[in-house]
From TrEMBL:
Protein name: C4-dicarboxylate transporter DcuA
Molecular-function annotations in GO: C4-dicarboxylate transmembrane transporter activity
InterPro entries on file: Anaer_Dcu_memb_transpt
Listed NCBIfam families: PRK09412.1 (NF006927)
Highest taxon above the source species: Bacteria
Main location: membrane
Subcellular location: Cell inner membrane
Similarity comment text for this entry: Belongs to the DcuA/DcuB transporter (TC 2.A.13.1) family.
Organism: Staphylococcus warneri
Transmembrane segments: 12-32, 38-57, 69-94, 106-128, 149-174, 186-209, 237-259, 279-296, 308-328, 348-376, 421-443
């Protein structure tokens, strides 16, 4: 006989206290998973916590975020295929040439290039490849590498939450689609907000802080980057195919009336935007497979695919656990009647709450999978979350992000430290929230 322990009945624990305990178990599971095995561990430990909720707290299991998982899988395969064919190297080569061409404007040019490429490819990993070039170019121009590197690292995060090919964005849009928030509406706020915030961040990094030239004794001859410089036509066509597919996703997201519809039993059925993303991502992968002869193992072991698989579990585990906890009948009543009413009178508390969780969890995808269901359960208008979505990027306080750590390691002058990102980071987050809500009002949402 299966042993069941009904904590509420046996111990007489108040419902609100029980709800808090469940949330604490969720947070502990996510943090323990991240500490143990990164994004993969985050998903695994969250699913273990799911067992505790079902058998210990007698909560019915919620719905797994299957759609979001499938989208992230398609993004990982498409991006991994592009990387395996050499397409990412080609993009890095182009970006490096543009950056090196404008050394005196490196604090503005580098973030712009990073933004464009992260937006188009959907991964901040491309910034890792550009950071050595940014540091070298800044140093040659006698500009503090710290300023250009800080602006570029933080900009990569801004761009990530705009890209339809990013796992975090894919998850957010898949959830918001159920609340009548299309990709077009999402991008109408998030994209211009990120671009304006990027420019203001570059201005901030230019004028804030010491502008002393680099002492000659600290000028170090950085090794030249050994980037590939010759690429076949097939690689170039493959990159073009990937970018056209991303453009296709954007087109259907902004103009949903262009999507095909069908008459099924007298009812008009439209193709879901979440399906469109998968179709175009797999189309991109198929074209690249036809153009270049590569081993499938190279796709699965590529950095982009590995990151996507980690993000997949970071969404599956916490997303499933969150659906179980926050959709439980008793918890739903507490969220709507008690916490929801308190939050509705002071809605800015949600901004603080999301920022604190993002600061601890660090991963945008994992934070989104935890916080988006909570925010929606509180009765906060979905468009409110869109305006404050960049709070998911408060991941610079605890120095654990690869792009941040690599930037610190690269700066031979020693001026870029793990704490160098905190003040510019909060500046750009606050700026993006202010701009986001301003655009929300101007657009009449």
């Amino acid at each position: 006989m299966l042993l069941k322990i009904n904590i509420t009945r046996e111990l007489g624990v108040p419902k609100l206290l029980l709800f808090i305990i469940e949330i604490m178990i969720m947070i502990l599971a996510v943090l323990l998973g991240l500490r143990t095995a990164g994004a993969l561990g985050c998903g695994i430990f969250a699913i273990v916590a799911q067992l505790i909720m079902i058998f210990g707290f007698q909560i019915p299991p919620g719905s797994a975020p299957v759609t979001a998982v499938l989208i992230i899988l398609s993004i990982g395969i498409a991006g991994g295929t592009l990387q395996a064919t050499g397409g990412i190297d080609y993009l890095v080569y182009i970006a490096s040439k543009i950056i090196e061409r404008f050394p005196k404007s490196i604090i503005f040019i580098a973030p712009m290039i990073v933004f464009v490429f992260v937006f188009g490819i959907g991964t901040a990993n491309i910034a890792l490849s550009l950071e050595p070039i940014i540091a070298k170019t800044a140093q040659k121009a006698n500009i503090q590498p710290k300023k250009a590197l800080t602006a570029s690292v933080l900009t990569a995060n801004l761009a990530l939450l705009c890209s339809p090919a990013a796992s975090a964005t894919a998850y957010i849009i898949s959830v918001l689609a159920g609340y009548d928030i299309s990709m077009g509406k999402y991008l109408s706020i998030v994209l211009p907000t990120a671009m304006m915030s990027m420019l203001l961040l570059s201005v901030f990094c230019t004028f804030v802080g010491k502008n002393n030239p680099i002492p000659s004794q600290k000028l170090v001859e950085l090794p030249e980057e050994t980037l590939p410089s010759e690429f076949s036509k097939n690689v170039k066509f493959g990159v073009l195919a990937f970018l056209i597919c991303v453009l296709g996703i954007l087109t259907f997201g902004i103009f949903p009336h262009l999507m095909p519809s069908f008459n099924v039993n007298g009812k008009t059925v439209n193709v879901e935007m979440t399906d469109i993303v998968q179709f175009f991502m797999y189309l991109s992968a198929a074209i690249n497979l036809l153009l270049s002869k590569i081993n499938t193992s190279d796709i699965l072991t590529s950095h982009i695919s590995q990151s996507a698989f980690g993000a997949l579990f970071a969404v599956l585990g916490p997303g499933w656990l969150g659906a179980t906890i926050f959709n439980a009948p008793n918890n739903l009543k507490i969220l709507k009647n008690d916490i929801g009413q308190a939050i509705s009178s002071v809605p800015w508390l949600v901004i603080v709450l999301v920022s604190v969780v993002a600061m601890i969890v660090i991963s945008q995808t994992a934070t989104a999978s935890i916080m988006v269901p909570i925010v929606m359960s509180l009765g906060i208008p979905p468009i409110y979350f869109v305006a404050m979505v960049q709070t998911l990027n408060v991941n610079f306080v605890i120095p654990a992000q690869p792009t941040l750590l690599f930037a610190v390691e690269l700066d031979e002058t020693g001026r870029t430290r793990p704490t160098s990102f905190i003040i510019p980071g909060f500046f750009v987050i606050i700026t993006s929230v202010v701009i986001g809500f301003t655009l929300k009002l101007l657009l009449g949402y």
